[in-house]
């Protein structure tokens, strides 16, 4: 990605006093996402890269437990919603209602009944159980407060649902999902708290979840977790969904109809994005983990007269063609601040092109090496398998 070709060039720098600023503000006021309209995020090319990478981690998580991806609309009939679990008046106030001739539709706020209604179009066989489905969805809500990345009017969730033949099977599915979320959060270096109530009897399944993952942080929404009473964000939930009227029936081996147990699974995309940024801060910015950070290599040309630009261009094109996620710092002013900008993203390897030759600098090293390489040597070093394993 060429930085000279990106919009909002004034944001392509290390924010002042970033060490003392809240993570949400660094995300919102830096080169990631902005809010020209309150509660509605516009992602820059760099921010969209990170968002896509986080979203792919969620796809891997949901697929790993056997969920199959589907796609369904972002609006649903109000009468369908009312067939599900009881909706509180406070929750109902957040619904986005469409004008005539679609006044009977509301913005999707909870996905379970919409999927169940869709599945009721055909009787399912008991052999199809467990049936596990998911979809990334945009959720709309009427929100008066304007808290940026943590309080959006349009936000993303991974919405999943399972049909199971028994409560034991449902509990097992929820536990497996919890293990998959554990693995994902650990891979993102997110320190989480897990609330596990699988198998317990509850008065209201939509208020007391079987399984919930929290990220404890000062910017949490006052969700109290554990004896330490810390603020936290709810990242992911899974629970037994008990609708008022379940239209879905399953044909058993004896040809009789049975009502399946329903599991609901949800993970907030922006909340996971925030937790990834917040838990991977260091003295130079965000040291995002492999697979999530936007770039694995940056190419910088350190020569104010531009003689090194063709060499930097050659290295950039070669790495890009090899499939390496590479940042090309092709701006020519404030060269040292550009090097710091690469560190701010957690880019592990910088290739600095000078008149003397090419230097390869490791972000984790305490000091930069003064060893110079030819272009072919530099390309070979960055392209070798040992170094690429770090990406």
Description:
- The chain has 391 residues and is an alpha+beta fold.
- The chain folds into two domains: 3-282, BirA Bifunctional Protein, domain 2 (2-Layer Sandwich), CATH 3.30.930; 297-388, Anticodon-binding domain (Rossmann fold, 3-Layer(aba) Sandwich).
- It is 28% helix and 25% strand.
- A seven-stranded mixed β-sheet has the order 3-7-8-14-11-10-9.
- α2 (45-64) packs across α7.
- It starts with 22 loop residues before the first helix and ends with a helix.
- The model has no long low-confidence stretch (mean pLDDT 84).
- Please tell me how large the radius of gyration is: 24 Å
Form type = elongated
Q: In the CATH hierarchy, what is the class of the largest domain?
A: Alpha Beta
Largest sheet: 7 strands, mixed
Distance between the termini: 16 Å
What would CATH call the homologous superfamily of the largest domain?
Answer: Bira Bifunctional Protein, Domain 2
List unreliable stretches of 5+ residues.
none
Strand share of the residues? Answer: 25-35%
- As laid out across the biggest beta sheet, the strand order is 3-7-8-14-11-10-9
Number of helices: 11
Task: Quickly give the structural class.
Answer: alpha+beta
- Helix content, binned percent: 25-40%
